[in-house]
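In this section we turn from sequence analysis to structure. A common task in structural bioinformatics is to predict how a protein folds when a small molecule is present, because the ligand can shape the pocket around it. The inputs are simple: the amino acid sequence and a SMILES string for the ligand, here ribose-5-phosphate. Study the lines below before reading on.
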Amino acid sequence: MSSLNLVEQSKRSAAFAAVDKHVGPTVRVLGVGSGSTVVYAAERLVELKRLNKLHPELLCVPTSFQSKQLIIDAGLRASDLDDLPELDPGSFASIDVTIDGADEVDAELNAIKGGGGAHLREKLVAAASKKLVLIADYRKDSEVLGEKWDKGVPVEVSPLAWSTIKRQLERFVPKSRVQGMTAEAVAAFEYNHPIAVLRQAVRKAGPVVTDNGNFILDVSMGKIYDPLAVEQLLKMVPGVIEVGIFSNMATEAWFGNEDGSITCRFPRSEMKKQD
Ligand SMILES: O=C[C@H](O)[C@H](O)[C@H](O)COP(=O)(O)O
């Protein structure tokens, strides 16, 4: 019997299934996400490499310091986002597929990411990928963002003015105070008064400093009914570098379930189109 607990086992099953489906000998460039679930994806890549089932010149694009170490420890080749050519002429994409974790995933596969502070590079890599495949355990499978993840939306901000940005995020966003806010945006999230908390480091006094030298504000706003509107709203605040809402980016999500089974989900609207 496995020594892993249920949650870890479900992360591992989801990661293995997603890697097996998406990373074969024809995949030349792979985006490697960050976090504890991606560790299992790296474990599977090591196994596939041993079995000669990977492209002989596979390039892996890291999304954080941690992710780069995973790639190196797996004996794979790390590459920079800027070193990659376009995959197909005229296409924006330079990465075949990216496999990444998530803090919460809704019915449309919009996601909250950045629980580990890596969302800036993760979003850059996701935006350069043909496919973004999310892997997660059952605790992160939601109908609406904010239903299960209660630590707020991670927002990477410039340390130059973090407290001003914090006040703006708390005051700018409140529905009643935003002039010209559309009815759709007013209905985009639950709380009237979001709260932004500067993320503190553990075993070091002071704030978390990201791989990019910035701070993180975790912005709690309850349930997020319109992720795209909220993402855009937060991003408008000067000094906000990246928002941990990934709207309309993921193409597929794999969840390990409590009973040991695995669920693969696609955006609900895509499923309806195929009906
Ligand atoms: O910043 C961290 C990343 O967005 C992670 O992918 C996300 O927090 C999920 O991490 P974990 O797999 O550890 O739950």
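The longest strand covers residues 129-137. As an exercise, try to locate the residues that line the ribose-5-phosphate site and compare them with your own expectations.
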